[in-house]
Structures are given as structure tokens and as C-alpha cells.
Amino acid sequence: RRRRQELFTEQKRRKLLPEALLQELAAAPLARAEEPSPAPAPDKRPERGSAKQRKDRIPGQVKKDKAGGTRSKGNYIAVHLKDGNLTGLHQQTAKDFIRDQLYGPGTNRTSANEFFSTANKKDPIKKAAVQFVDKSWGLEKKQRAAKFTKSWVARKMTSTL
């Protein structure tokens, strides 16, 4: 079973990496062994597996992280994290600009959240979401509505008597 496992890992290693890179990897653990390694911290976890399994393991055999760059085929591009943050920053700046232009000081407008807020509903004076600058706009319609209301109330009063 162990022989089959070793054969499998060797085949996989040959399949994944070119020969020149494999030789560099084989030489790399030897160079690391020559350098003095720092003492392990006491809070580190012990190695998993029994002593027999650790002894049977080949020293050059190191578990590799899955690197997407070694086997990736297709149209992939590398993106810096700063680029994504810049995009978000540009979007946020644009949103702030639009909000300031529409609802900033000097404009007679309010946002929907402010318009439908409970504070605005509880105020004795209800405000519209858009307040017109020219107060004469709609003045004629208001006068006609007031006149109609008066005549309607007068008709109802006379009909009930």
C-alpha cells in the first residue's frame, strides 16, 4: 500500500511540475536544513499522526498549497486589491456628489428616507419631498380647490336643512 502511495505521489509530481522546477524543489529542502531553524514555540500544536508515520515520510516530500497560477489555463488576469478599492472609492465619491447636488444645502429637496421619516410624520407641519422655489406655481389650482370646497360645504349644509 505504501509503495502504491509513493508511486502515486511521484506520478502526480511529474505531471504537475516541469523537471527543472522539481530539481530546484529537491535542492531547496537541503538548503533549508543547513540554516539554523528557530526553536518551535511551546504553544504550537504537535504534529499529527503516529511516530511510525512520521518516520516513514520522505523528507523531501512536502505538502504543497494549491497554487492557481501553476495550472491555470484560460483568460485570467491578476487584479491588485488597491484597484478594487479605487473603484469603490470612485463610486462612493460619485454617490456623494449626486447626493450633495440633489439634497445638499441650497436645494429645496429632501430624500425619501427623510420625507417618510417618523419625525416628519409627527411634525404639525407636513413637508413635501420637493418644495418648489416659486410659490406661485400651483396657486391657481389651490384657489380653485378652496373655492370648490367652500361651495361643496355650502351645498351640503343647505341640503341637510
UniProtKB/TrEMBL annotation:
Disordered: annotated segments: 27-74
Molecular function, one GO term: RNA binding
Domain of life: Eukaryota
Species of the source: Meleagris gallopavo
Protein name in the entry: Nucleolar protein 7
Start-end of Basic and acidic residues biased regions: 56-68
The encoding gene: NOL7
Domain U3 small nucleolar RNA-associated protein NOL7 C-terminal per the UniProt entry, residue ranges: 76-138
InterPro entries, alphabetized: NOL7_C
